[in-house]
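Changelog note: in this version the structure field was regenerated for every chain. One regenerated record is shown below for reference.
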Amino acid sequence: MEDKHTILTKSEIDQVLIKRHTLPVHKKIRQAGAAIAGLGGLGSNVAVMLARAGIGSLHLIDFDRVEPSNLNRQIYKMKHLGDYKTDALREEISEINPYISVRTDTVKLTPDNTGVILADDRIICEAFDRAESKAMLINHLLEHRPDAAIVSGSGMAGYGSSNTIHTQQRMKNLYLCGDGTSDIASSIGLMAPRVALCAAHQANMILRLILGEKDV
């Protein structure tokens, strides 16, 4: 039986992306990298979007495993149930573009290890579910990493208007994406469309930072 799967070469993928993005834009994106802390509804979608854009490297950080409740809004499939999210997402990225350099840390970020784990990252996507984890990471980075750009997500629950989700620059190097108000605590739940909208804002802001566009 004929194998219908085609693996493009790196040069072939580059040519496709150059045609879509232009050579100068593709070069900047290909030479850039980003860290994604939290690989749930936000982080997994951000990673896939950046992979499709042709980013050169991704640093994926999460300690959790894929479970059934993740399937309504995260990029994972049933075949990934029980797998570490770092492993499952690496697999998905390899099927989009196997030439992206993917580094994983299957660990929970804490005030004690954040500095070491993120030491080499200059653009960091904060994509945690829990407010305390978000606050810990953002406060740590603002205090200890003034050179790092932080792209955070907050407020994407439910099925309200898409137009309330936007990107704001809160500080020199802190960008906040979302509606800023809705969350799972309000009992309206998390659904794929608005979560993906917020993730798209984060991914787009990361690309703008890579391309030297620091305004929102």
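Spot check on this record: The longest strand covers residues 166-171. The helical segments are 10-21, 23-30, 41-53, 85-96, 114-117, 131-144, 192-210.
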